[in-house]
Amino acid sequence: MSEEIENLVRRARAAQEKIEFWSQEKVDEMVAAVGWEVYQLDHAKACARLAVDETEMGVYEDKLGKHQKKTLGTLRDLCGLKTVGVIEENKEKGLLKIAKPIGVIGALTPVTNATSTIACNGLPILKCRNAVIFAPHPKAKASCDLTANYMREGLRKVGAPEDLVLNIKEPTIELSQELMRSVDLVVATGGGPLVKVAYSSGKPAYGVGAGNSTVVVDETADLKDAATKIRNGKIFDNATSCSSENSVVLQASIYDTMMKYFQELGGHLCSPEEKARLRDLMWPDGVHMGRSHVGQHAQKIAALAKIAVKPDTSFLMVLGEAVGPADLFSGEKLSPVLTVWKYGEFEEAICLVRDITRYSGYGHSCGIHTTNDAHMVELATRARVSRVMVRQTQPFGNSGNYDNGMPFGLTLGCGTWGGNIVNENVHWKHFLNTTWVSMPIPPVVPDENKIFGAHWKKYGK
């Protein structure tokens, strides 16, 4: 182990041991203090500005809004939550559950959400009396340091150990790997290769899968509302979110109307020739995604691809032709580029969602704009995803919003479909150990007739 990682882990462990048996009141005071330092407007503005300047991705106003909303939403979820001592009692079963910290958690954070992920993971980690060491993407190291410094200021104000929040100043792949091998739990928010390394670290790990949100619009939807919400998700922060709408699947009878709305909302439909030039820009070698378009405005992407667009163009559209490597636009694009598909019967829409997400974004999310509950339930039942947003903007809803019940969090598990151990939004409950205390109760003896009666009646004993 390098001297740097050894020192960080030693300091974090010493700090965590000091708060291991703190009262709920002291813990809550600490979380509120840290949360305020991260949330207050001047600090949030500084975080958003640095994130855009350092990473050269996204939109300042969107990053500011995301940073504040995800911080406040996380604090809302934590407010009044019991994470110390007995957190659950079942007298009928004679069970008590006692919450205990995990210890030192290593959190790998992405370039796309350079500051908001730190707040979303750091606050519940502290709420559960853990210490955290952040390992940021190298292109977001200053953004991480600034956010972590604000968090440490909050710790200082209430007399909590500052070393509860630490970060690698000059991150490298090797240092991140050492960190993962040295902590008690790993939280890896980032690309597929990073998550695979986390799962190979020998330590328990929460990882995420790739996004490729695919959204269905059926003939019963409020079309203008659907078009507006899809556009808003597609352009938010220049589509740096893993939850950004990547494909839209339109019912044939409303296809023309939706395309008209998209164009009125700033969409530019690429011709086949323009699509080819855009493909060459986004996948320069014909296989792997390049970086020049990631998190950039549609106007810049269009200029790079030599596509003439109107001054008010805010996103580009291409027609989907095939699912898979034959049409790379069926995958995740991390840019304001939307792939458009058409279907006739609803069965076709379900098959498209299943095929698109199986190719890219398996297990992550999809959405539907409909007023037909049967369509909603059918898609949710058959799509192999962890989240289905109904009449919502995907990047707003997937990670928790004030108008839905999803837990706030920016580490979105994709279940076994996406190679993850969890398919929830990683939040406070994932940062606790729980001790079950069992006391004697009157015997609950199984009734053989109740269990086997139907079987005996049909097949005999």
Protein traits:
461 residues; Aldehyde Dehydrogenase, Chain A, domain 1; Aldehyde Dehydrogenase, Chain A, domain 2; 7-stranded parallel beta sheet; 16 helices
Distance between the termini: 62 Å
Can you name the CATH architecture of the largest domain? 3-Layer(aba) Sandwich
C-alpha geometry: globular
How many individual domains?
Answer: 2
Structure description:
With about 450 residues, the protein is an alpha/beta fold. The protein has two domains: about 5-210 and about 425-435, 3-Layer(aba) Sandwich (Aldehyde Dehydrogenase, Chain A, domain 1); about 215-405, Aldehyde Dehydrogenase, Chain A, domain 2 (3-Layer(aba) Sandwich), CATH 3.40.309.10. Helices cover about 40% and strands about 20% of the residues. The protein has helices at about 5-20, 25-40, 40-55, 60-80, 115-125, 140-155, 175-180, 190-200, 225-235, 255-265, 270-280, 300-305, 345-360, 375-380, 395, 450-460; strands at about 85-90, 95-100, 105-110, 130-135, 165, 185-190, 205, 215, 245-250, 265-270, 315-320, 335-345, 365-370, 385-390, 430-440. The strands form three sheets. The chain has a seven-stranded parallel sheet with strand order 10-11-12-9-8-13-14, sandwiched between helices. Helix 14 links the parallel strand 13 (about 365-370) and strand 14 (about 385-390). Helix 1 (about 5-20) runs parallel beside helix 7 and helix 2 (about 25-40) packs antiparallel against helix 5. The longest helix has 19 residues, at about 60-80. The chain is globular, with a radius of gyration of 24 Å. The N and C termini lie far apart (about 60 Å).
